[in-house]
Amino acid sequence: MPISKLSSGKYLVKVYLKALSGSYLRKQETFHGTTKEARGREKELLAELQSQTSLTSLSTVKISTFYDAVQLYLQYLTIRGRNNKDHLRRYGLIQRLFGGSALAQVSDQLQAWLLQSIGTRSNSTINRFITMVRAVFNYLLKLEVISKNPITSIRFPKMPEKPRDRTLNQEERERLLSTIKANYPNYYPFFYFMIIVPCRTSELVNAKREYYDPVYNVINIPDSKARIPITKPIPPEMIGYFKSLPTDVPYLFYRKKGNTYYPLNNYRHAWERSLKLCNLSNLRVHDLRHISSTDMYNMGVPERTIMSSAGWKTPMLSTYRHKDGMRDAQAIQQVLRGRDPQTIQF
Known about the structure:
Elements: E1 3-7, E2 10-18, E3 24-32, H1 35-53, H2 66-79, H3 85-98, H4 103-117, H5 123-142, H6 170-183, H7 188-196, H8 201-205, E4 212-213, E5 218-221, E6 230-233, H9 239-243, E7 254-257, E8 260-263, H10 267-277, H11 287-298, H12 303-310, H13 317-320, H14 325-337
Antiparallel strand pairs: 1-2, 2-3, 4-5, 5-6, 7-8
Helix pairs in contact: 2-3, 6-10, 7-11
């Protein structure tokens, strides 16, 4: 649903919505105002399309396969503004796995898939798949298409998950960043920012130029996966990068081909290739979020402050902070040395 800037204060706002019939409803108009106001108008136009689709008719839709059920649920997520590329990719996968099955067959097929997946997929991946299938059936239950959800917690209990504890020592960080800078210079600011400030990739890939506040040297993310606005601090060594952004670039992190700027949607290729070149393994882009959070914590940044910057609504550091028993023990010794000595004899 793009918003195209035609000139200063003038935007072309387009929205579309897939109807239950399979056809698309579209609206567009020329809007005068600020970028923020144009986004507000985009939401208003989408709401108008939503009223045309009449959600009250959803419960009368004939659903013959699980594929139809997933399509219906994805439309619901789109209407609620909760759909994204990750959702489409993941639900597209369960559609391929179980899409051709009748609703009554899905629980048995999911059980068979679960037995095959244990030991070959991580418990977090298995839990995610089960949660996704359960969510589709919960929506059908809400619409009264079915009378009960077959994906019960008794038959499909949550499997224990062990948080990843991958970290980087100083030599590995320098090796990784120097490799990225030498081979993928356009991606260097993107990954450098992530290794310093806890971020989700989607927050930076979609970050627009107008999110940058040059007065306070922060990036204001208006919306996030947590559905809250987030303010990201800019590391002092990166202030020059942001102040020198080309005047016509629409993104904070970008690549340029010819005279056109593009967002870094294809960062995974640069990441995987860089890992091979610098001989690092078992490191995911999302690990940088946990690594940077741990670094902040070790530097003495309060947990609530890290949560605010990272976009965590709940205290996640107890799970995602990388544990170092020796370092923690030495930190405690420093505190104990500052106490008054006790007179107890041993």
